[in-house]
Amino acid sequence: MFPLGGQRSGGSRKRGGTPMSARGVSPRSAGARLAAAVCATGTAFAFAAPATGADIRLANAWTRPMGQGYPTAEVYVDIRSDVTVKLVRASSAAAKSVAIIVVRENPDGTRAATAVRELEVPAGRETRLALYGNHLELREIQEQKAPGMSVPLKLEFVDSAGKKQIVEIDAVVRGVVLRPPPPAEPQQPQASANDPPSAPGAVAPK
Asked: Model pTM greater than 0.85?
C-alpha cells in the first residue's frame, strides 16, 4: 500500500525563482518535511504529476545489500499511475545498467526470469515489483552498499500518446549482507589430439 499523506504536484516549475505549491509552501520546505517523514517511517516514496502528464507514484523501493563479488542485485518498488503507462527504461548511478525482469511460473512450479524491453503499468491499481516476482536488476554494480544506505533510481515511463516521464526514488538497502562467493576453480587444460598417450601407471607431473 502507498503511504497516506502523499502530496500531489500542483503547479509547474519556473526558472529564475523559487516555485511555490498551491498552498504557498516552497519545494525546499516540502522536501525537508518529506525527508523527516522518510526517517520516521523508513518508507521512501516519489511521484511525478506534470500539468499535462500522468500521475505516477513510486513507493517502498528497497534492495538487498550489495556485497563484494556479487555483480547483480534485485530492486523492488511499487508503482501506481492514474493512466495506463509502460515502464520502458531504468537506470542507477550504482550500476552500469538496470534490466526490467519479468518472472513467469512454469507448469512444473519453477520460475523463469526474462529481461524485457517494457512493462505495462495498468491504470488505477498498484503494480508491484517484488521479491520472487517481477523486479529490476542492477547489473555490473559499481559500489558496495551496506544496510541503511540507499541506491538512486530513475524510472522512465511512456503513455499511450508517446509522452515520456522520468520519476526518481531512492531504494533503501536492507537485509543480511551475503558472504563473498567462493573463488572460481581454475580450469584444467584439455588434452589435445596431438598429445602423446600416457603410459600405463604414469603419474601426471605436479
From this structure: no
Which residue from 176, 171, 129, 178 is spatially nearest to 42, judged by alpha carbons? Answer: 171
Which letter does DSSP use for residue 66 in this model? B
CATH of the domain at 96: 2.60.40.1890
Mean pLDDT in order along the chain per 10 residues (206 residues): 41 36 39 43 55 86 88 96 98 97 93 96 97 96 92 97 96 84 70 61 55
H or E segment at 116? strand 111-116
d(CA 129, CA 111): 15
Number of domains in the chain: 1
For the chain, the first-to-last Cα distance in angstroms comes to 62
